[in-house]
Amino acid sequence: HTRYISVTGVQTCALPIYDFNGEKSFLIDAGVFPGSSGSPVFIFNQGSYATNNGIHLGSRLLFIGVLTSSNIGTLEENNKYFVGLGNVVKAKVLTEFIEEVSGRLLNKAN
């Protein structure tokens, strides 16, 4: 699990390096509710963090994605509740989208 900071405090997410349900997304447990979609998701390491080369001293802030939806459970047919889990589209997907759109706009301008 990776821990990150949200406006409500420290939360937990599944490892964002893995795809969830075959999509380029992952889950977070952050008290997510409808209306949270579009919120940016960051990893904030303060003091030290692990890298492939060992432990690095210092802090970092990584943008890892954007919240796209919240998960709602159902107890009975008309009795729904918020489970607090959210789906996050990975930052890589957003970067690829921006590059695609900007490339098309540049080609159209030329």
Characterization of this structure:
Helices cover 17% and strands 55% of the residues. By secondary structure, the protein is an alpha+beta fold. A six-stranded antiparallel beta sheet has the order 1-2-3-8-7-4. The protein has a two-stranded antiparallel ribbon with strand order 5-6. It starts with a strand and ends with a helix. The model is unreliable at 1-9 (pLDDT under 50).
Topology summary:
Blueprint: E1 2-6, E2 9-13, E3 25-32, E4 40-45, E5 48-51, E6 54-57, E7 60-76, E8 79-90, H1 91-109
Antiparallel strand pairs: 1-2, 2-3, 3-8, 4-7, 5-6, 7-8
Task: Give structural attributes.
110 residues, alpha+beta, two-stranded antiparallel sheet, disordered N terminus
- Which sequence of SSEs, written as H and E, runs from N to C? EEEEEEEEH
Annotation, overall tally of beta strands:
8
Beta content: over 45%
Integer average pLDDT = 79
Question: Mind describing the biggest β-sheet?
Answer: 6 strands, antiparallel
Shape: flat
Q: Helix/strand/pairing class, anyone?
A: alpha+beta
Distance between the termini: 46 Å
Q: Count of helical segments?
A: 1
Q: What integer value in Å does the Rg equal?
A: 17 Å
Cross-sheet strand order for the largest sheet? 1-2-3-8-7-4
Sequence stretches where pLDDT stays below 50 over 5 or more residues: 1-9
Q: What is the percent of helical residues?
A: 10-25%
